[in-house]
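Quick one: structure for this chain?
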Amino acid sequence: RIWKMHHPCIMHASGAATLLMLGLGLAPAAHAHVSPASRISIPLATVPWLRAPVTHRSPASSHASRILAVLTTEATSPAEATQQSSRPAPELTIPGDTLETLPSHVAYTLGLTGVVGAIAVRALLAAPGPAAAWLAVALVLGDLMSGVIHWATDNYGNINTPVVGTVCAAFQGHHKAPWTITHRSFFNNVHKIAKTALPMVAVAVATLPPVGAAFVSFLLYTQLLAQELHRWSHCLPGELSPWQREVQGSGLVLSRREHLAHHQAPFDSHYSIFLGWTNRLTDRLGLYRKLEAFVYACNGVEPNCWKEEKGGSAVRELALASRQ
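Got it. Here's what it folds into:
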């Protein structure tokens, strides 16, 4: 939800460790966009920047609700989908954000793509079997990784959180203006992930054998792909090219229907935004409810999905019951 509201997904892979810290109480659980009247305070540790009041997400305007209803309606044809609604103007909520495609966006994205491709080829030439196997594992783990990052940034932290504050604000804001991400180009949409991943890829190459470096590098690259597939899932059919519609409808990557199931209050499921394959497993196992209960037991911080007016209390009960 944040990935878009600012960057509907600008999942900074480099914030993976920090995301865990978010859940463990090292970040406030406030939403970045709330009305003063909707705030409720919850005592939080003694860390200074944790003292901000936890808040409910403010409901979207009636106009935004109508647009979201259109986005969640399956159109029978690209032409019909295009005619269904004219979308409102994009809403940028992160300081310094832009919808322009800058040369640096292209450079970071192509740079990471080229480096990861070269690393994968090197590994496949050195050890074809093991390299192919580990790249396949990275593909599936990348889907799960996208879900865990999405869950963490949706539910914990805010724009003031160190390192990943803009990611938290973006995901959380995404639910209020999900159409904003569709106004972005490919390079504008994914460049922040590329910029973050490049130094991490460099470390992997310097410290791991070829197959290991290929695994880590491709795992990070899946998050870039996840951000773009997330954008596709918010586009109406008529806004995608024929080949994009074919890929999206193949069942091999995140589908529009699969992701839009997440955009239902209390926004507590269907977090994976890469392939969507792991959503059924994580939701059936109650993975995120267990993680929420664990975080709450550690520091008393409630995730945002517990505070949603529609369905939040039921999610809270499920999570707490999972600890018994």
